[in-house]
Amino acid sequence: MLERIIGERIILRRPRMSDADAITKYCNDRSISKWIVAIPHPYRRKDAVKFLKDVSKKWKKKTDYQYYIEYEGKLVGTVGLHVKEDDRAELGYWLGRPFRGKGLVTEAAKLLMKEGFRQLKLHRVYARFIKGNKPSESVMQKIGMKYEGTFREDVKRKGKYLDIVQYSILRREFR
What we know:
175 residues
């Protein structure tokens, strides 16, 4: 995959260790960890450093392609493809609170999926979210994904079972 992908308003780039402070700041916001199972709260700098090391290893193994979203010269969020077998990948993303509502994740997801279908020869990309996360669902709909179903009580967080909703798109459907 490319090291940088340039869009109309954003740049997607490989993460750097110097991003740890910005990641810590944004991911420590409860509005992110509330909706993303893999992000703990509170989120500390050591969590960001561990995440960055993990991302670097997965890039080398060609199993995950995590990008940081730059907007107006600032890191504002992430978007990634987590490659699975059978030419599939899971799309994931988050965006810092001050930058929401501008269509940045939609632009980032489209850019990354375009490269995933082209370079990785993916057949299918899917994305999942905790039921109730309307902004995430809206992004999936805007990028052309179709609803596949709800996995009832699929994850457990803080003693409570949560439903997970899944959308997907096939290469031939992507525009």
